Amino acid sequence: MYNGGKIIAGLIIFIALVTFPFYTNVGKTIEAPAAPDAAPDDMHIGNIPIVKMRGEHMKLLDQWRDEVVRKGERFVEYDGDQYEKSIQNGCLSCHSKQEFCGKCHNFVGIDPYCWDCHFSEEEGQL
Amino acid sequence: MKIDRRKFLKMAGFTGMGLGLSAADMLFKAPAEASSGHSAVSTAAVRRAMVIDARKLKTDEDYKRIVDACHSIHNVPTLIPEKDTVKHEIKWIWTDTYSRLFPDQVNHYHPEGFKQKLFPLLCNHCEHPPCVRVCPTKATFKRPDGIVQQDMHRCIGCRFCMAACPFGARSFNFIDPRPYITELNTEYPTRTMGVVEKCTFCSERLEKGLEPACVEASNGALVFGNLNDPESEVRKILKTHFTLQRKPELGTMPSVFYVIGGDEYAG
Q1: Where are the domains of chain A?
Q2: Which residues of B touch A (CB under 8 A)?
Q3: CB B161 within 8 A of CB B140
Q4: What confidence tens digit (pLDDT) does each residue in B138-165 have?
Q5: What is the pLDDT of residues B210-259, one digit of tens each?
């Protein structure tokens, strides 16, 4: 083998670098971040179970967006009451943005671009 | 059957003539509809329209009240003139002079004061909106009631609509508008950098049974209604007053009409 020493030395360095995350972390336990103290799983939002709402509220918001912007159907009725299909005038008129939205979003580490335009009253001047 | 050369050529000739005639027939029928802007009028039950009675708008205060009503409700940012370039300006409703509004009116002998008179301008919510035609994402669309609406979620900021609009009714958010909003309305979203925006005829207020904000603030100078209802207020005004639309020669058929007046300027 030509330059055998260099090749083998190079391979050893390469393997050492690639496996670096494994041998440095072996045996260590990393604590999972504390789950947010969310509402109990048997709750409902409107007629939708909260578990479904947690997983699929983005689809509902998408659907509402199209209905409001495209068709002008601005209100949804539940239990005889009318609610506005709106983040600012619907969800956030009762809920707090930090509690209701922020808790889970922070936990899973996402920053949805809803807040580029929509905002809540509690934020005051932007 | 045996066909000689002479008979074949005759048949081929007649067939060609027949094809040509049917093509010509189509050619003569088609353009009649396209070339006349007046033939394609909306027949929908509702077509939202506005009449602006410029005679009732006299002082700067009258205009300011209208513009402020709209811009404060819709979180439209106000520029700091010494800091920002004019291209960053966002406007839903604004004012300009007669000659800028109606460049097709080339009468040099209008009273001098009248030429300086300001008129309010806004999106014309055209019957044939060119902005809708060019939008590559269908973010801008025409609602069944004639309002030209824009889905901000879908706008990619290509600004084709700004190039297409002959009325300059659209503004682009070159910068984040939030720091420039003086009076924040928490019931309406702001916009983000990179989207185009314009007047919506206050569709969100109409759905709650309210009139557009500018109409409400105008003390009767701006009248809003259904253009396709012969008994509506706007139609009554159009029936009894001479009105102008902006740039009618372009065939976009604006839904905003101007009662010009001008008697007070005539010597």
Answers
A1: 44-123
A2: 141, 143, 149, 151-153, 178-179, 181, 184, 186-192, 203-204, 207-208
A3: yes
A4: 999 999 999 999 999 999 999 999 999 9
A5: 999 999 999 889 999 999 999 999 999 999 999 999 999 999 999 999 99
The predicted-structure confidence for B51-106, as pLDDT tens digits, reads as follows 999 888 888 899 999 999 999 999 999 887 666 677 788 999 999 998 889 988 88
Encoded amino acid at A81, one letter: D
DSSP codes joined into one string, B200-267: -TTHHHHTTTPPPHHHHHTTTSEEEEETT-TTSHHHHHHHHS-EE-SSGGG----SEEEE---GGG--
Q: Which residue of A has its CA nearest to B190?
A: A117
In the sheet that holds B48-53, the strands lie side by side as B222-226, B48-53, B256-259, B243-244
**CATH architecture of the domain with range B48-265:** 2-Layer Sandwich (3.30)
Q: What is the C-alpha R_g of chain A?
A: 25
CB-nearest to B207 from A72, A113, A118 is A72
| Distance of alpha carbon B165 from alpha carbon B102, whole angstroms | 15
pLDDT tens-digit series, residues A28-78: 888 887 777 777 777 777 777 888 888 889 999 999 999 999 988 888 888
Nearest CA in chain A to B138: A70
Give how far the C-alpha of residue B175 lies from the chain's centroid of Cα atoms, to the nearest Å. 25
The beta-strand segments (E) located in B98-238 are: 118-122, 140-142, 148-150, 171-172, 196-197, 222-226
Complex ipTM, two decimals? 0.74
Residue B151 has its nearest CB partner, among A69, A120, A126, at A69
- Do the strands A48-49 and B256-259 form a parallel or antiparallel pair, or are they unpaired? unpaired
Cα–Cα distance measured from residue B250 to residue B246, given in angstroms and rounded to the nearest whole number: 9
In DSSP terms, B244 is beta-bridged to B258
To the nearest whole Å, the CA of B167 is away from the closest chain A CA by 23
| C-alpha–C-alpha distance, residues B251 and B126, integer Å | 9
Nearest CA in chain B to A74: B207
How many C-alpha atoms does B218 have within 13 Å on its Cβ side? Answer: 23
